[in-house]
Amino acid sequence: MGILHGILLTGATGLLGRYLLRDLLATGHPVGVLIRAGRDGTAKDRLNELLAFGSESLGRELPRPVLLEGDLTAPGLGLGTAERNWLARETRAVLHSAAYVSYQPASDGEPWETNVNGTWRLLELCRSLGITEVHHLSTAFVSGDRRGLVFEDELDCGGGSGNAYEQSKFTAEQTIHAFPGIRATIYRPSVIVGDSRSGYTSTYHHFYRFLELGVRLSARPGSAGTKSRPRRHSLALRLPFTGEETQNFVPVDWVSQGIIELLHRPHRHGRTYHLVTERSVRLREIVAILEDLLQIEGIYWVGPTGLPDPTSVEQLVLEQFQDYWSCLRNALLFDCRNTRQALPDLPPPSFDLELVSRLLRFARDDSWGRKRARPSRAPDFGCYLEHVLPEQLRQSSVASILPRELLFALDIHGLGGGQWSCRWADRMLSVQRGRTADADVTYRMEAATFDALVQGRETTQQAFFEGRIDIDGDMEKGLKLAMLIEQFLAERPQRSQAREALHVAAGR
Amino acid sequence: MSLPDAKSTVVEWVQFPAGLHLLEGELAYAEEDHPLGVVVLAGSHPLLGGNMHNNVVRGLGDGLAERGLATLRFNYRGVGRSEGPSVDVAQHMAEFWETSHVPGEMDLWRDVQGAVDFLRPVMGSARPLVLIGYSFGCALLSPVCLSEPVAALVLIAPPLEKHDYTEFIRAKCPLLVIISEDDFTMDPARLQQWFDQLPVKKQLIQARLDNHFFRGHEPWLVDIVSAFLKEHLQ
Description:
The complex is a heterodimer. In chain A, 39% of the residues lie in helices and 19% in strands. Chain A is an alpha/beta fold. Chain A has 3 domains: 3-193 and 249-275, Rossmann fold, CATH 3.40.50.720; 207-244 and 279-331 and 348-369, no CATH class; 381-502, Nonspecific Lipid-transfer Protein, Chain A (2-Layer Sandwich). In chain A, the strands form 6 sheets. In chain A, strands 3-2-1-4-5-7-12 form a 7-stranded parallel sheet, sandwiched between helices. In chain A, strands 18-17-16-19-20 form a 5-stranded mixed sheet. The radius of gyration of chain A is 24 Å and the shape is globular. Helix content of chain B is 31%, strand content 24%. Chain B has helices at 55-66, 89-99, 109-123, 136-139, 141-147, 188-196, 218-232; strands at residues 9-18, 21-30, 38-42, 70-74, 129-134, 150-156, 175-180, 202-207. The longest helix of chain B is centred in the middle third of the chain and has 15 residues, at 109-123. The radius of gyration of chain B is 16 Å and the shape is globular. Chain B starts with 8 loop residues before the first strand and ends with a helix. Chain A binds chain B through residues 220-234, 236, 298, 309, 311-313, 397-398, 400-401, 403, 459-461, 464-467, 475-476, 479-480, 482-484, 486-487, and chain B through 5-13, 24, 26, 31, 47-49, 51, 53-55, 58-63, 66, 80-81, 89-90, 93-94, 96-98, 100, 184-185, 211-213, 215-216, 218-219, 222.
């Protein structure tokens, strides 16, 4: 067959997708790339950015792919006749990398809408165009919460029971296998991290959340600018694990290279490949790396029975872990015989101090994506502030503590940001767009900071004392109100509702 | 005495008794040398986010340790992992909102006393004792500095309008006061009047230092406080 005849790529704007596009183009084959317009630009703008990345990282110009402006959530992927004709003429295969990467289900039907229904629409398109070769990006975690060694050629062995993302990817695999006339090759990477050589990443989830947390916990403001020699900082942090739990991380460039290699070996198609490291890394080993790298110590394993009286720092850490709880607690081992046989000359890079140092260096230089990051869909602060927050506040214990009347304003910079005036009177909050001149207090911050606050990734005090929030107006009221806001945000139901209201699509 | 340049330091998590409660703290000191003095840091108000991780408290704790002093920062009772009734924002904020005070807050001076009682024998009772307060923590130092042989006192952003600072007139040790010119808690005339009547060797430093918060100015604070201690610790 083949891919020599050209390939349709979906999901090119995701982290893995941009590597797949780069590496596919570098092989010289015709590529059609499905991209939709996003908040960060038109489909053409987004493709230009991907090509600039690819050319820069390879150090040479890449041929331009055919841009197919469309959307997995639209009937027929939203493609016109010209695009369909081009696909029918030029392509014999699909590399389906698009996914909605969120562990929490959202009210708009995600992640199933993209990951399952979108896959179905793509398969329908393949059928109508006579494309039979489908290469599908799944995840090693379709195994759900089953235990022990997970084999590549098994799917329905207790899988499908993980988080929403894992469940949707499990169903997508079932959908593909059940679809008539399709020869499917399934790629199941474990947790993808940045480039093993440059440290590059375009997204900061999972491992990066923990890495950034480690950096923040190790930060000592007083040391900045002084002539200090490295020293270890004791965290006195208890973690509700044994330390023997395992994780499996693979660098994005290796995953992409592996997939491209397999694309070129047709006799290997029609199987499932675990793109994982043969030996998973224990939490204890990860923490040891972070301790060396960040010069920290004092992390204790207290076992999975829970933390009595967690400190505020421990509470913060637990909340950071919340989305990843199922992944952190497991001790899965992934069989990778298919991959090893097919790619004996391409072993995965070790997850070691050197790799983590590179990932950290890039993340720091990139400000953890905050300066550059333009999520494909902006968090909807307006929806949260105007519709969700008033009702939440009315039901909160904080409603009885707030003074009778208060007018405060939010000035949020960056994608999804804006200005809002919030009037509290008679135990009711009304929020309006625009900034009023007579606000008692105005809080100014970046969109990423606001997002982190309402989703509980940091506290108002932390953000303020680290200089990420500015307060204008009545400073004393501003500080007191910030404490009450923190109290309000700490009430757990608030956070899950806020997360849903703000939901950010990544990698679609 | 000389305060040398940056040293390699260690930071220990410690617990010590203060009254009925066991408090947590972070003890920082130079790895190789005997400390030139011992410093207790009293931070800002628990109801305004005051804890031992505050930028001023932590900045000075680590920075002065690098200059050869042993420093102890700690969490007041009920904060973090310090024992005692939790800081209940819901219970106290209504009153705090109106008055900026909560019942029993001045009793937290006993926590400072507990920190002093713990630190001195651990690091050597003969070493000069320095008390440093930041914001609300300043007001807690007067009972301690009147009963202990304090070698130097540093008050950073003392909110004179909110608490009683008259007792500092009885202090016997050299005193450094650092204030940001744009501090929202400060009345310049009142500050000067209070400062003028203090009968000890004293120094008042005012500059624009991010209102009451000193964010980004922590290394500068370390330099200023080090220079003052260099002059006065004998």
